[in-house]
Amino acid sequence: MKTIITSDIHGCSLELRGLLRKCELNKEEDRLLILGDLFDRGLHSYEVFRQVEKLKAEMGERMIIVRGNHDQFFLENLKHQVSMALWAYNGGLKTLQSFENHGQKPDIARELLENTPLFFEDEQFIAVHAGLVSDRMEDNTPEILLWDRTVTEGGYKGKIAIGGHTPMRQPVFFMPDGNHLVLPYDARMSFPDRGFICIDTGCVFGGALTGLVIEGDRFWLKEMRKKDY
Fold first, then answer.
1. Which residue stretches of the chain are H helix?
2. pLDDT tens digit sequence for 117-126
3. Rounded-to-integer distance, Cα 152 and Cα 131, Å
């Protein structure tokens, strides 16, 4: 069984489809984690919703969505629209338009997103959308897990964690000694036990959608860009 992790889809449905193909996702055996921000900014949020909904139906508990700040925006606006202006400024209007183009209201995605945790942890790693201040998860507020960017400034020394939220040119490993390492694609490496790996590589801004694949004590990275399809 492999674990495949990606983040910050932002309506990039073709890139998501291509990335999972490159990562050789086996829907019957592998585990898939998406670390939030399914929608907004990109043109195809509705298509992403349908892709993810189908994957969840096919894979069940082996498919996990960790909630991101844009997913939180989405849910808040479905409930009471108190932050509509802020959501619209951050790409929400493209999400509404994408659903409307298919004759659907965004409410159909409510159940999918309402059932998302703020983090995932197993014996090997922690997965979050944005950041964390400690590997004692009770020390991390929802605001930290959804919004924090300070983890990419270095200094986190806890159990290895994987997240997105802060776009990078390439995936970066922020080591527990305060240094950082730009990670190459398509190279098999030993999976570290401490530090933080950021895999948001700004797909919706013209960068890549990155997938991190873990198998045993090894991991590697795959990328999907517009030029690849």
1. 13-22, 45-59, 69-79, 84-87, 93-101, 110-114, 142-147
2. 999 999 999 9
3. 8
Helix (H) or strand (E) holding 78: helix 69-79
CB 18 within 8 A of CB 51: no
Closest-CA residue to 211 (of 15, 10, 43)? 15
User: Is-above-0.90 flag for pTM?
Assistant: yes
Q: What is the dihedral of CA 6, 10, 13, 19, to 10 degrees?
A: -20
Place of tokens 């790693």: 125
**In whole angstroms, what is the distance from residue 211 CA to residue 25 CA?**
11
- Cβ-based neighbours of 50, under 8 Å, separated by 6 or more: none
C-beta of residue 120 within 8 angstroms of C-beta of residue 64: yes
Residue 59, amino acid: M
> What is the token pair recorded at 27?
């829907």
What is the distance between the terminal CA atoms of the chain, rounded to a whole angstrom? 27
